[in-house]
Amino acid sequence: MATAAASNAPAASFTRGLEGVVAGETEICSVEQGALIYRGYEIHDLAQHATFEDVAFLLLVGHRASKDELRFFKDELIANRALPNQVVEYLRAAGPMLKDGTAVPMDVLRTAVSILGNMDKDAQKIDAEANLRKAKRLTAKIPTVIGHMQNIIDGRDLVGQETGGDANLSHAGNLYYMMTGKKPSAQYERTIDVSLILYAEHDYNASTFASRVIAGTLSDMHGAVTGAIAALKGPLHGGANEAAMDMLSEIRRDIGPANDKAKIEAWMHKAFAEKRKLMGFGHRVYKNGDHRAPILHGLGRKIAEAQGAEQVALFEMGEIVQAQMLREKNIHPNVDFPCGMTYFVMGIPVPQYTPIFVASRITGWAAHVMEQHANNRLIRPVSVYTGPALKKWKDA
Ligand SMILES: CC(C)(COP(=O)(O)OP(=O)(O)OC[C@H]1O[C@@H](n2cnc3c(N)ncnc32)[C@H](O)[C@@H]1OP(=O)(O)O)[C@@H](O)C(=O)NCCC(=O)NCCS
Question: What is the pTM of this model?
């Protein structure tokens, strides 16, 4: 708890970063050190037995889908994958900005979602049915935005422009296909699928809270999701999966091709001395480890092992870094650390890691927007004033 600094400020106290503050209720998810639960189902159970489509339905609709409901839901997603021409034109126009680096994929995805809102016939409606329709359309279309964007960056013809991909592929498999033009192996498909399950929802995290604040003014779904994407981009939040991989690449550049443990540890000691935040480590809630991290680490490592020594070496370096963080700082990796390595060994371009996070978290955000709209009260906290004492404008 901090107290007001200015002499004229009231004797109020507050918690920096709202740490530990209970900001509301939710039926969607429980994030605790003991367990991560989506609407009653524990994350290991979901990662082992469910698909992303199962989890998306669970989050958006509120219960586990029956066989018929699931089939219908999957068909709806597939039918909504293709993008309006105006969005494709925007993505083409953004190509030079992506290439010269003035824009990164998260920025372009944010704008594409905003344009999708301009073109959605339900855009201005916030009733439950309209919100659910929009949530499904966004869930279906975001992977297509990511895929087309990557094709444009790579100078390839767009994959599946008319259809939004291959109707025989799952959401996860089609995402990979749209980005690369290649059908994923069963191992790749399932690994992406599990990563989407793990990323789908996390209660009042920064981006979801941002989406609820926007929805709380009775603003619309696309606006709330656009704001949430901006919040997720930051390296303290979703941007950490890209930043974690960038950090591992930096270590590799600095220490050379072999995993010399002493050199890695020296690199880390220098980072500690510089008080550098190591990306993919730490968490506001999970101080004793993130449930999701070992699940994804295991799957990513298996892909590396199937590929050979160079890819395994990346995981071994990550494991040395992890062990040292735990031993010397008592800080555990979060899900973004193994995510960076996992997507890397699958050949996914680093700047698309956080957009892929969006392709999953859209379901959690949309569920929260619907929950907020269904039982709304404006979210408007207060602050402690620490500015100048009262003065007269005309005396200045
Ligand atoms: C996620 C994060 C923002 C949580 O922050 P928080 O709850 O505010 O935690 P704090 O910043 O209070 O951290 C407590 C202590 O651990 C240190 N710490 C936390 N995460 C750290 C990290 N990744 N690297 C180095 N030190 C870290 C802090 O410097 C602080 O040390 P101090 O007490 O000596 O000042 C923070 O851990 C972080 O920046 N991690 C890196 C980014 C990341 O991976 N984000 C994805 C989260 S899922």
Answer: 0.96
CA–centroid distance, residue 278 to ligand 1 (Å)? 8
Q: Which of 209, 284, 288, 330 to mutate to test the pocket of ligand 1 (most atoms within 8 A of CB)?
A: 284
What is the phi/psi pair of residue 246, to 5°? -60, -40
Domain edge (last residue) among 205, 234, 263? 234
pLDDT digits (tens, 9 = 90+) for 342-395: 999 999 999 999 999 999 999 999 999 999 999 999 999 999 999 999 999 997
Residue 160 near residue 81, CB atoms below 8 Å:
yes
For the CA of 276, the closest atom of ligand 1 is: 25
Q: Assign residue 277 the CATH number of its domain.
A: 1.10.230.10
**Do 194 and 335 have their domain in common?**
no
Distance CA 73, CA 79 (A): 10
- Angle (CA) 89 90 95, round 5°: 100
Residue 186 lies in a domain: yes
336 is catalytic: yes
357 lines ligand 1 (CB under 6 A): no
| Structural domain containing residue 128 | 48-234
